[in-house]
Specification:
The chain is mainly beta. The protein has one helix and ten strands; from the N terminus they run E-E-E-E-E-E-E-E-E-E-H. The protein has one domain: Immunoglobulins (Immunoglobulin-like), CATH 2.60.40. The protein is elongated.
Length: about 150
């Protein structure tokens, strides 16, 4: 059975020379954006890491996934749905690992809680769900201790 190993947001993602995933500004809790600067265009990367230790699980199945980013008023800012093949097990003692990386540019127009959600579906197990929140607030609300800043 697959499990959700990690699901989060970052400002950027790339593979290094070894093929390892490198994240920039990962797992932000707050974006400080003045109300007068809205709507603000922000780049976000949604990252999902799945893993299975099941030795009987063949690597020739496909998975389906859907992601969405909703604004505080419930409007959907970004949504995607796709099917992808599972990778082949590279060694009998290593788990199968799947990394899904989706980048998007969104226009943030409200202060409040934004929610990213993912649903992963397999042909032979129950769906896996994950959510992550990010808050958009005025720098004044955050106070002088805030270390985040508005995007350029």
């Amino acid at each position: 059975m697959f499990r959700l190993d990690w699901f989060g947001l970052s400002e950027g993602a790339a593979a290094d020379h070894r093929g390892m995933l490198t994240l920039v500004g990962f797992n932000p809790q707050v974006l400080a954006i003045p109300l007068e600067a809205m709507p603000a265009s922000v780049g976000l990367v949604l990252v999902v890491v799945l893993e299975s230790d099941d030795p009987e699980r063949p690597g020739d199945h496909a998975l389906g996934y859907s992601v969405r980013l909703t604004a505080p008023d419930g409007s959907i800012l970004f949504a995607a749905q796709q099917t992808a093949p599972l990778p082949v097990r590279i060694h009998p003692e290593l788990p199968i690992r799947v990394q899904i990386v989706l980048g998007t540019q969104v226009a943030l127009r409200l202060h409040g809680r934004y929610e990213a959600a993912v649903t992963i579906e397999f042909p032979d197990q129950a769906p896996i769900y994950g959510t992550r929140s990010i808050y958009v607030m005025s720098p004044v609300e955050l106070g002088p201790e805030a270390t985040t800043s508005a995007p350029p």
